[in-house]
Task: structure prediction
Amino acid sequence: MAPVFPVSIKGVVLVGERVVLLKNEREEWELPGGRLEAGESPPVCVVREIREELAIHVAADALLDAWLYEVLPGREVLIVTYGCRYDGGGDVRMSDEHNAVGLFDIAEIDGLPMPEGYRRSIRDWHRRQRAS
Result:
């Protein structure tokens, strides 16, 4: 039987030149986002999750990456990341789901505890935004 993995849709949100990250219960920094619900498209999911977690509205613009992440020993989650456009409407606020929210310069992300896949997505979206 083929393995089945939970799916988590995450968004790279830049505020100016800084990326929004949230600290989870494992003391890792992560991108905002969450579980894909039944019947929901990934772009709709990431917009909804970011609104719930950060109280801002974004538009899902580009699919960036997908990979399996072992969140706990023997427990993998399929992570799908989107580059999201933030128009600056509303202030970034953290929900009760996380321990901290931060805005980080791209140069700072190498020193943060986070999955490498998030770093790849952040760098990719930052490059695309600078090129446009």
